[in-house]
Design goal:
The structure is a homodimer. With about 600 residues, the first copy, chain A, is of the alpha+beta class. The first copy, chain A, has three domains: about 5-105, Nucleic acid-binding proteins (OB fold (Dihydrolipoamide Acetyltransferase, E2P), Beta Barrel), CATH 2.40.50.140; about 120-255 and about 530-595, 2-Layer Sandwich (BirA Bifunctional Protein, domain 2), CATH 3.30.930; about 290-420, GAD-like domain (Gyrase A, domain 2). Chain A is built from 16 helices and 23 strands. The first copy, chain A, has helices at about 55-60, 120-125, 125-130, 135-155, 195-205, 240-260, 275-280, 305-315, 330-345, 375-385, 400-420, 465, 495-505, 510-525, 535-545, 575-580, and strands spanning about 15-30, 35-40, 45-50, 70-75, 90-105, 160, 180, 190, 210-215, 230-240, 270-275, 295, 320-325, 350-355, 365, 390-400, 430, 435-440, 445-450, 475-480, 485-490, 530-535, 585. In chain A, the strands form five sheets. Chain A has an eight-stranded mixed sheet with strand order 6-9-10-22-21-20-17-11, sandwiched between helices. A five-stranded mixed β-barrel of chain A has the order 1-2-3-5-4. The first copy, chain A, has a five-stranded antiparallel sheet with strand order 12-13-16-14-15. In chain A, strand 1 and strand 2 form a beta hairpin. The radius of gyration of chain A is 30 Å and the shape is globular. In chain A, about 50% of the residues are buried. Chains A and B meet through helix 3, helix 4, strand 6, strand 7 and strand 8 of A and helix 3, helix 4, strand 6, strand 7 and strand 8 of B. Chains A, B: It catalyses: tRNA(Asx) + L-aspartate + ATP = L-aspartyl-tRNA(Asx) + AMP + diphosphate. Chains A, B: Pfam families: GAD, tRNA-synt_2, tRNA_anti-codon. Chains A, B: InterPro entries: Aa-tRNA-synt_II, aa-tRNA-synth_II, aa-tRNA-synth_II/BPL/LPL, Asp-tRNA-ligase_1, Asp-tRNA-ligase_1_N, Asp/Asn-tRNA-synth_IIb, AspRS_core, GAD-like_sf. Chains A, B: Its EC number is 6.1.1.23.
């Protein structure tokens, strides 16, 4: 139907007849002539409709925004001074000979260039929203990224194997989406939270190198970077250790950034043990562009009179400072705002000291809390942080989790707002040496930090029984600019080690067999050493585009209430459908649907 | 961990030290030496363990089938006469210096080369089953095929856009898999039967060319070529007509066969209107390798005395013959078997005539039914079919559907069994010009043959109201060797035509708005002319591998009872999970789960 994409017509086509199809982006009447900006996926071109072709001109007069046209015309140079350098086609225009309205359009609910739309409006009219050039760019980039992943993995011998969507509910982890079975009354499939077990089974089956770009599902409350269904670049390999996997994976992500974004990421990526990341940044996905760091103070706060510090310091909590160079300039209002901000993360307050004159010691410090701190503590603060005149330190003192979350978030916020940045656009970092377990204070038991199939470090296998809290895992995450974009581990390939881990997790043999029997069976039949990683595709693309939300890189996302405003899903279904599935609604919700009699 | 894949070591590596990882495929002791066939994804290599390295030899003595080994050794030429030409590595062997057992294995449930396993055994131990070389080959070929699809589509400007898995139930079509919503009590998502509506929305949104290799779901009773979840190569394009789409798609499938299988399919594919396919072969996916054809006899059987023929011929049914050249040789037992076979398709019998001496007319024919047929009818049989001495004709007389199904299946069966084949390995054919509607005798209404978004032929739009049964669609299927491997259509892009189709289908405006409102809305805002096609990936790969069932080209398939024997899905879930989802089991099935009290 067409000879060119609108966005591809250039001065190279001068004096050629072209046929174009696209949407009316804008129509202007100027000096008796009609100018139509015709738009397609590749861009805009200006079409000029002269009144000297009356039939064509009459049609041109009838067109409105978003009409679909097919036009034929001759490419000519725009008059000098009217070129548009922001368009590929900006040097030329098409003098229209013929015009056909392929489809009219009613007036769209909003202008495509309206930047002040609510997300509800955008998602309700997603089809129009997706016509907006930045949404087109986002989804085209997403495709470029996924193809870059595929090409690298393909070239490195990885094989895409599809794993099931209708699988078994596993009570570990997040909440499953369930699918009632019609054939097996009272039974349910679950949608996969990840293909974790299947990819391990594929390694045991000898596929050696596996990948899949696949949907995963978690029925959790949503945040800006979460969707009920999300896309994972899922990767697993046999016969490679931790270090080799990390090298290959960072080479992959470097290639993806180079191909899709023409960005060179560092080679190699820096690596940082989990313990160091938490100590210095309070986060296992530190934004290394931010130059601010924590100052560890727990040890020197044990004996101070200030109970807000000594309490956490003597009861397993953490006390840390965050030095803000030049922070003495912060206004009372700003400090109040930061205090409110850390409250979101559970911090009950935000103590601070301004260093007016470090040489004067206690007397050079301005703060409500200085009087309750010992000379030793104050000296340690200055010495460890390198505080200088004009700086300010914020303090966190609480459980380690609250201090890390609150001060870690404050670090990023102030870093970005006040420009404590190292100037790099992209700062990836491997975070390694994660603990195997964390202690659940509520349930009084150890839980897996990663998942129960993660291998302990070889030299820590004995700690599984003697001191699980000290046991480190062969696990690694990639953080980029403060976002976790991928994570993985070397898996346990020997049944005896897997059993020890289950014992540490207080999962008895019967429970283990019930939940993971098929994996445990597979481990007995010659499982190779294997490990892998999964990238969050939505997050990677969101980072690349600079979008505010992953919803801007997904064609048809759900709202934070897990709804699709376009199709109005979820929705009610016929009672017959429920009957076929051997389920009924609980009474409380049986309002719109006839109460069932059986 | 390794320098080579086992299957890649060749004479080019002579005298090199290599390190290999893999599974013990076979171990033989011969003349005091241990031979281990070590296997990985790429093939086998023979490893020779000499007793002159005692530590290594002791380990070698301990290994059993399916142990995972890492071996280091020197590549040497096999002694003359012991080469194995069926292996890439067959000229060489590796003299083992070091051996490490990476993981032992218990005795596998079956030998990998056992060809007599039940499907239940294979699916229950799928991980071991997947180690079998033909399963490895099938899944590797599947990957090659899907990458060939992607490469062609990418090179032709198609963009992979992910569409939702959690979407809305549409009461049209097959039964949906439903997913209860936790956030919206009493509401349900549905898993997509295809991304049909979303891909049309993407065209309206201006993405121009879309593809996706994606899972689709139908909760239907299963057959050999059906799975609850199946994979579709889903394609849609804007601004292309029927003919251009078909040309591009056949070029795609030709490229896929050439790249993945090194097979050259015909260029161009033959095309055949639906009416012709049904008339000649009783099938809209005819196996054109089979040379047998139907003889149309309905018109000449209206007045015959034989009620079995005249009944259907005068009441809207069909009477057709299937001439089997040389079929006079068929035994009574064979004819009985075929009679039983057509019974599967609803035929109540299988009349036949043997042509002993065509020149003698009625007297040269042997059959119980000849006496009840008129001379005109017998003459038409011979003339239309070109029957010769020694041939046999089978007859079908029933509703057109039964005749087509029964005689169509018989055609394929006899064609393959008796060698009435044209010698081609691959016979693709486009079947075109499908009717828009078929009449549902039970519901006394027209239903869509394809789906309600299929465009009628331009010149048939008026028939939508005046004579729906005569209205043909811009729909096309690709059949290959008797399998439908893909199908598609040009879609309706104008709201007024879509409304006419809904009227013909007796779907009123309110119902249409309720079910497809978001598509109808989209059509109002400037929908481009568009159309597409979807290939069934499972079927394409099954055909390519010659597998008996699509289950042999799926890593983790479900049984015909929609179960996964490996993970034992579906399964029971906690009542708490159901409570979260606002559903409970119907009483009949509330056996294993506590009866709910609210």
């Amino acid at each position: 139907m067409r000879t060119h994409y609108c966005g591809h017509v250039t001065a190279a086509d001068l004096d050629q007849m072209v046929t174009l199809c696209g949407w009316v982006h804008r129509r202007r009447d100027h000096g008796g002539v009609i100018f139509v900006d015709l738009r397609d996926r590749e861009g805009l071109v200006q079409v000029v409709c002269d009144p000297d072709r009356p039939e064509m001109f009459a049609t041109a007069e009838s067109v409105r925004n978003e009409f679909v046209l097919k036009i034929t015309g001759k490419v000519r140079r725009r008059p000098a001074g009217t070129e548009n350098t922001s368009l590929t086609s900006g040097e030329i225009e098409v003098l229209c000979h013929q015009i056909e309205v392929l489809n009219p359009s009613v007036t769209p609910p909003f202008q495509l260039d309206d930047e002040n739309l609510s997300e509800t409006t955008r998602l309700s009219h997603r089809v129009i929203d997706l016509r907006r050039p930045h949404m087109q760019r986002n989804l085209m980039l997403r495709y470029k990224v996924s193809m870059a992943f595929r090409r690298f993995l393909d070239a490195n011998g990885f094989v895409d194997v599809e794993t099931p969507m209708l699988t078994k509910s596993t009570p570990e982890g997040a909440r499953d989406y369930l699918v009632p079975s019609r054939v097996h009354p009272g039974q349910f499939f679950a949608l996969p939270q990840s293909p974790q077990l299947f990819k391990q089974l594929l390694m045991v089956a000898g596929f050696d190198r596996y990948y899949q770009i696949t949907k995963c599902f978690r029925d959790e409350d949503l945040r800006a970077d979460r969707q009920p269904e999300f896309t994972q670049v899922d990767i697993e390999t046999s016969f490679m250790g931790e270090d080799a996997i990390m090298q290959l994976m960072e080479s992959l992500i470097r290639t993806v950034f180079a191909e899709a974004l023409e960005v060179q990421l560092p080679d190699p990526f820096p690596r940082m043990p989990y313990a160091e990341a938490m100590a210095r940044f309070g986060s296992d996905k530190p934004d290394l562009r931010v130059t601010l760091e924590f100052t560890e103070l727990t040890d020197v706060m044990r004996d101070v009179a200030f109970k807000v510090f000594s309490g956490p310091a003597t009861s397993g909590g953490r006390v840390a400072g965050l030095l803000i160079p030049g922070g003495g300039e912060l206004s009372r209002g700003e400090i109040d705002e930061y205090t409110k901000f850390v409250g979101i993360y559970g911090a009950k307050g935000l103590a601070w000291i301004k260093f007016n004159d470090v040489a004067k010691g206690r007397d050079g410090m301005q703060s409500p809390i200085v009087k309750n701190l010992s000379d030793e503590a104050l000296a340690a603060i200055v010495e460890r942080s390198g505080a200088k005149d004009g700086d300010l330190m914020f303090f966190g003192a609480d459980s380690a989790k609250v201090v890390n979350d609150a001060l870690g978030a404050l670090r990023v916020k102030i870093g970005h707002e006040k420009g404590h940045m190292n100037g790099a656009d992209w700062m990836p970092v491997w975070v390694t040496d994660f603990p195997m377990f964390e202690y659940d204070e509520d349930d009084k038991r150890w839980t897996a930090c990663h998942h129960p199939f993660t291998s302990p470090k070889d030299e820590h296998v004995d700690l599984l029984e003697s001191d699980p809290g000290k046991c480190l895992a062969k696990a690694y995450d990639i953080a980029l600019n403060g976002w976790e974009i991928g994570g993985g581990s070397v898996r346990i390939h020997r049944a005896d080690v897997q059993e020890k881990v289950f014992r540490a997790l207080n999962i008895d043999a019967e429970e283990a067999q019930l939940k993971f029997g098929f994996l445990l069976d597979a481990l007995k039949y010659g499982a190779p050493p294997h490990g892998g990683l999964a990238f969050g595709l939505d997050r990677v693309v969101t980072l690349m585009t600079g979008a505010d939300s992953i919803r801007d890189v997904i064609a048809f996302p759900k709202t934070q209430r897990a709804q699709c405003l376009l199709t109005d899903a979820p929705g009610e279904v016929d009672d017959n459908q429920l009957r076929d599935l051997h389920i009924r609604l609980r009474k409380k919700v049986e309002t719109a649907v006839e109460v069932e009699k059986d």
